[in-house]
Cytidylate kinase
Amino acid sequence: MIIAIDGPAASGKGTLGKRLAHHYGYRHLDTGVIYRAVAKALLDEGFDLTDEARAVAVAMELDPEKFGHPELKTQRIGDAASVVSAIPSVREALVNFQRQFAADPPGAVLDGRDIGTVICPDADVKIFVVADPQVRARRRTLEARARGEEADEAAVLADILKRDERDRNRAAAPLKAADDAHVLDNSNLDIEAGVRAAIAIVEAIRAQRK
Ligand code: DC
């Protein structure tokens, strides 16, 4: 089974993806990390984020062993990832890796922006997670502070709104719910309630198929 989870920045899709994968014994891929890794490599090497040739080369050479690097979580890299991910050839270079991950047994949960629409359009379950921008800004601010970073909630909110705008309006694989996605509003749910709601969606689909 393939479970696709999409949604805007800080909607909680990563946590839901991780928890769902754990619940079902599947593998989990946070696809945002891939774009973050491309962005970090470009910045580290001193290249411009719009240097298409270099960005594609970096995307083809990605080392998944480095996806756990703590700097990938920072707002600076998230913002840079949003820029780099708008380049169609960069997205194309990363499609096979994601599809292969999804296809390997026993099943997989992938979260991102275009999983249900582009990467796995035939996913068994598609969940589109939404949450109020203010709620997302609060969560991201608390997460950043927990990592020891300084974070100003108003600035985080402005960044989230800017990122939503860029991710939704780009030409290549924009952020949007697939027609057959189930929308999960995570604004007023704590983690456990969100996980229960996501499992309920998966179970309802499994029951329909029996
Ligand atoms: O989910 P995230 O904040 O880690 O994602 C960082 C950026 O990467 C996001 O602003 C847009 C891009 N992204 C994407 O274009 N497609 C995906 N499947 C995942 C992330």
Notes: Residues 191-209 form the longest helix (19 residues). The longest strand covers residues 125-130. The pocket of 2'-deoxycytidine-5'-monophosphate is lined by residues 9, 31-32, 35-36, 78, 81-82, 85, 112-114, 163, 167 (CB under 6 Å). Residues 14 and 97 are 19 Å apart (CA to CA).
